[in-house]
Known about the structure:
2 domains; 5 helices
Amino acid sequence: xxxxxxxxxxxxxxxxxxxxxxxxxxxxxxxxxxxxxxxxxxxxxxxxxxxxxxxxxxxxxxxxxxxxxxxxxxxxxxxxxxxxxxxxxxxxxxxxxxxxxxxxxxxxxxxxxxxxxxxxxxxxxxxxxxxxxxxxxxxxxxxxxxxxxxxx
Length: 152
């Protein structure tokens, strides 16, 4: 699976628009559904497979590896400039900072976003991104991009 941020998805949209192409035209050319392309361009990167993303990048003249390196560099710059200002969560399921709750027969952990490097409750190193896809954190128990639970 490719690690594609919402910012990269928007660069795909901008490149398509700059070429004067519609989502329907591009979707027909690369063989995917227009609806999936629309969701991809709005930041839901998992709506297109790696093969379609590669085809799309080629058609739009984008260098996907370069975009990912630039995105990683900009993310790292934000984290290294002031590590304490970056929000993170404790990956330990038993930590009191993670409130567990049940949905059906599954247990989820609503994470408490904290500032710093270490958890204020148990001292564990805080996770700064989704452990499954690497996307920036959102409030709640699961990643808004890939749907994976932050704490298992």
